[in-house]
Amino acid sequence: MKFAAQENLVPGATFREKVQHLKRLGYEGVELRGDHLAERVQEVKAALRESGIAATCICGGFKFGLLFPNKADREESKAQIKQLLAIAADVGAEGVIVVPIFGGPQIPDLSPWKTAVELERELLVEQLAELAAYAGTQGTKVILEPLNRYETHLLNRLEQAAEICDRVGSPHMTVLADFFHMNIEEADIAASLRAAGRWLGYVHLADSNRVVPGLGHTDFKSGFAALRDIGYAGWMSLECGVPGDPLATLARSLAFMKEQLSA
């Protein structure tokens, strides 16, 4: 398993400075923000080559409108995700993290035919199949992320995201496991990771209080052991707060994570 951090968590006036800091601290990858990424692709590629740090995936930077009621919004969302999937290929990243929707349903409840959530699931499968097919042309993946109940009503647990992947049935889709969200939603983090093993392709790290691992009470040891058991060898990227001196905090957290991984 390889450790990374989102670029916005690392101090530095430029992207080059950020990845140089990550390299010195012992991280191997950087998770890219999708915002305005198209405008800085050459800067990113040059800094990655120079530092030896790898791009892991792209997070955010598109319209979260896949399940909006207006077709134009959905088409705009898909177009933006496709653009980022192509950029991911260009910079050597694995793919794009996709959250289907934040908050509650926006499409109408058509009971007794179908509820809003049933309609959302059908609509989501159709659109993810299209996006996964495009990702296949780029050699990248759609990375589906479940969130906790306070951020979305849809896809709160790994098993729910895995079910969507089963229905799409594409090798260009995978599931993201986020330790912060799992700490809220999963009865047993280690068991949920093992059960989702077939589809698991990316990991976000944050402690119970949504700061760096080691400053809360999440049991990373058992979670990391489960990842080893299923043969997971991919990226684990920080998505969390970094209190205090960010470089010192990132260094301490990496040491803590490596200790938990080897325990």
TrEMBL record:
The keyword Calcium does not apply. Gene3D superfamilies: Divalent-metal-dependent TIM barrel enzymes (3.20.20.150). Pfam families: AP_endonuc_2. GO terms for molecular function: isomerase activity. This is Xylose isomerase. It comes from Alicyclobacillus cellulosilyticus. PANTHER family: HYDROXYPYRUVATE ISOMERASE, XYLOSE ISOMERASE-LIKE TIM BARREL DOMAIN-CONTAINING PROTEIN. InterPro entries: IolE/XylAMocC-like, Xyl_isomerase-like_sf, Xyl_isomerase-like_TIM-brl. Residues 20-259 form the Xylose isomerase-like TIM barrel domain. Keywords: Isomerase.
